[in-house]
Amino acid sequence: MTIFNLYIFDKMGTLMHYAEWNRTKKSGITREEEAKLTYGMLFSIKSFVSKISPHDPREGFLYYKTNRYALHYLETPSGLKFVLNTDTAAINVKELLQQLYAKVWVEYVVRDPLWTPGTVVTSELFQSKLDEFVKQSPIFGIRNI
After folding, report:
1. Which residues have C-beta within 8 Å of that of residue 117, sequence separation ≥ 6?
2. Tell me, which GO biological process terms does this entry list (predicted)?
């Protein structure tokens, strides 16, 4: 199992933070363009799920899987959107994203007196704690191809 990358968007779709670990293939476009495409796709999928779901879509869209990767999604009550791309064998990713939000985002971003909500996160402490958190997770690893 492995983790490829992480996007964190605010409620307006602004890319707050991006990190990658075991990503071997680049998209060929800028990070900003890739983030806009990712956010647009999420917006469309969420809308589709809310309209077509035969059940009450309270939790809404949580993930989708292709034959190459899985995209996992967590939206907080404040509208933050965490998008984690993993290989298809990754399990318990929802719990991992919830822990990432509570133990890393809240501790090292929300409680940072130098961070202003709505601005890009540039804290080196946050980046190092995020990296440490992800690398210690059970789904982090080098993909065997």
Report:
1. 10
2. endoplasmic reticulum to Golgi vesicle-mediated transport
Residue 22 placed within a domain:
yes
User: What are φ and ψ of residue 20, in 5° steps?
Assistant: -140, 155
Residue 137's pLDDT is 87
Specify the number of domains making up the chain.
Answer: 1
Q: Does 36 have pLDDT greater than 90?
A: yes
Its domain, for residue 82, covers 3-136
- Mean pLDDT on 52-60: 71
Report strand pairing: 70-75 vs 81-86: antiparallel
Closest by CA position to 73, among listed 32, 39, 33: 39
pLDDT band of 63, cuts 50, 70, 90: confident
Higher pLDDT, 8 or 87: 8
